[in-house]
Design brief:
The complex is a heterodimer of chains A (99) and B (406). Chain A is 85% helix and 0% strand. By secondary structure, chain A is mainly α. Chain A is extended and about 55 Å long. By secondary structure, chain B is an alpha+beta fold. In chain B, 44% of the residues lie in helices and 13% in strands. Chain B is built from twelve helices and ten strands. In chain B, the strands form two sheets. A five-stranded mixed sheet of chain B has the order 2-1-10-5-6. In chain B, strands 3, 4, 7, 8 and 9 form a five-stranded antiparallel sheet that branches. The longest helix of chain B is centred in the middle third of the chain and has 31 residues. Chain B is elongated. The chains are: A mainly alpha (99), B alpha+beta (406). Chains A and B meet through helix 1, helix 2 and helix 3 of A and helix 4, helix 5, helix 6 and helix 8 of B.
Chain lengths: 99, 406
């Protein structure tokens, strides 16, 4: 079991290294640094902006609402929030419909 | 003797040492930040990522086949690429709410104290950083690309970057599964029988408002909602329901969307007029055929979809000359690949290589008509390629030459 686990871990690491090597050596990708900024940008946006906002909302909700209302609020936040994020390109940039 | 006052060092106040030992970190009181919730949502998220990765590989191989595989790519089922690319985009979109829910569940771990316990622990946290940043990157760039909104401009090319970051992300995902295997196994066991602690936690969560069941159900509803809201761009009966799909597939002349217009491709009426000829070169009998010549040859009908790499796909009825018939007429050997050249000026796909199995498929056409009418200029007039089970970018429009490659 331990062998299987370590094989999985090392195999996964090898796949990730293969991807990193490809990213750094692909002739079409001239500025891997820019990709790095984008990769870290997503982490920063989630961990320092989106998540704190959501947790502050959750904290406020637990202080001011009854469990029944809380359940509905949580469901509305998750469904509406996810749908808004998915729709963001369409809302901000419009649907693709040439002709 | 004079006695000097002895200066006694004041002890550091207790609360300051404890501050240095552990700064005030946010505390998370919901009982849903546990192994079971993380395992359940993580399993669904892992399935979505595995689907997106495998279908993405299919798309990559079809577009850039390695030489050892190029002649073994199947032409059937004709809707194969429509299915895999539809799944690719749909699983990526469904993964967005799943990833958000998963991140909510495990967010408290960001504030673990001490942040690094050992070298192995540091490596594990690094693998999670890689997984997390790669996953967000893939979902964000994929979603934006499906809407053809290239906000990254010239910073990186989408195709190669999305492809290589996918390998990094999946590698980190496999590492994560390996590291967390015991926790996942615990989390997926029935809580009533074996995870008494998790069951108690859920009862507590229920009392406070959101039970695990409610949270998981809501996550599933969110994933279903974003899927239904977008999947109509490939499951066309749902096109009128899917109001948030990046592509509105109900719009398009001849009942088929146009990805790239003639104007965008730099193709004008002047070069597609009466002087236009299709040249078939490299065979024993080189051909130069006008549109009337082509229309006088045996016509074949085929029902084949256009399936775009951006995820939309629409079925259509095509009519034209079999590519195999044209190659026979030009005296091309049966096992030859062909290189197809378009009139288009600016585009990465102006020249396309078609392997012999596609060229010789009985429903592979040099199409002249679409859904009962002659092609419009934007759909590739005078003649375009349509073959089964290939990405839309390889269904070359405004064809001017088919060259037999030895």
């Amino acid at each position: 079991m331990k062998v299987l686990r370590w094989t999985t871990i090392l195999g996964g690491a090898a796949v990730a290294v293969y991807g990193a090597f490809g990213l750094l050596t692909a002739p079409e990708i001239r500025q891997p640094r820019q990709v790095g900024y984008w990769l870290l940008g997503g982490v920063v946006l989630h961990d320092l902006v989106l998540a704190p906002v959501v947790f502050v909302l959750c904290w406020a909700a637990t202080r001011r609402t009854t469990p029944r209302v809380r359940r509905i609020l949580a469901a509305a936040l998750l469904v509406a929030g996810a749908t808004t994020l998915v729709a963001a390109p369409v809302l901000l940039h419009g649907r693709v419909a040439t002709r | 003797m004079r006695r000097f006052p002895v200066r006694v060092r004041k002890p550091i106040p207790e609360n300051l040492t404890s501050f240095l030992r552990q700064p005030p970190l946010p505390r998370f009181r919901s009982r849903l930040h546990d192994e079971r919730t993380a395992s359940l949502i993580g399993t669904a998220l892992g399935a979505a990522f595995a689907t997106a990765f495998l279908t993405g590989l299919v798309s990559h191989v079809l577009q850039h086949p390695p030489s050892w595989l190029a002649h073994h790519l199947p032409t059937r089922p004709s809707w194969g690429y429509r299915l895999t690319q539809g799944l690719h985009v749909a699983s990526g979109i469904a993964a967005i709410p799943l990833l958000l829910a998963k991140l909510w569940t495990v967010y408290p771990k960001l504030f673990e104290w001490p942040p690094l316990k050992s070298v192995l622990h540091a490596l594990e946290r690094l693998s999670i950083l890689v997984l997390f940043s790669g996953a967000v990157f893939e979902l964000v760039t994929g979603l934006l690309n499906s809407a053809q909104w290239y906000v990254w401009g010239a910073q990186f090319p989408f195709v190669q970057t999305h492809y290589w970051v996918a390998w990094i992300t999946v590698g980190a995902l496999v590492v994560h599964v390996g590291v967390k295997a015991p926790a996942i196994a615990r989390g997926l066991r029935s809580p009533k029988k074996e995870l008494v602690e998790a069951y108690r936690a859920d009862l507590e969560a229920q009392r406070r408002g959101v039970s695990r069941r409610a949270f998981i159900t809501t996550t599933a509803v969110a994933a279903g909602a974003v899927t239904v809201a977008t999947v109509g761009e490939s499951v066309t009966p749902l096109a009128t329901v899917s109001v948030l799909s990046p592509r509105d597939v109900t719009v398009g002349e001849q009942r088929l969307p146009v990805n790239r217009t003639a104007a965008q491709a730099g193709v004008t009426r002047a070069v597609t007029g009466a002087d236009w000829r299709l040249r078939v070169t490299g065979g024993a009998r080189p051909l130069s055929l006008s549109l009337d010549d082509l229309a006088a040859l045996a016509q074949t009908s085929a029902a084949l979809p256009i399936a775009c790499v951006e995820g939309w796909s629409v079925g259509a009825h095509w009519q034209g000359v079999r590519i195999g018939d044209l190659l026979d007429l030009a005296g091309a050997p049966h096992d030859a690949d062909i290189r197809v050249t378009s009139l288009e000026k600016n585009g990465a796909y102006a020249v396309m290589v078609m392997e012999r199995q596609y060229a010789r498929d009985p429903s592979a056409l040099l199409a002249l008509r679409l859904n009962g009418q002659p092609l419009t200029l934007d759909h590739g007039y005078p003649a375009r390629i349509i073959v089964p089970n290939r990405p839309g970018v390889l269904q070359t429009k405004w064809v001017q030459q088919m060259a037999v490659i030895a």
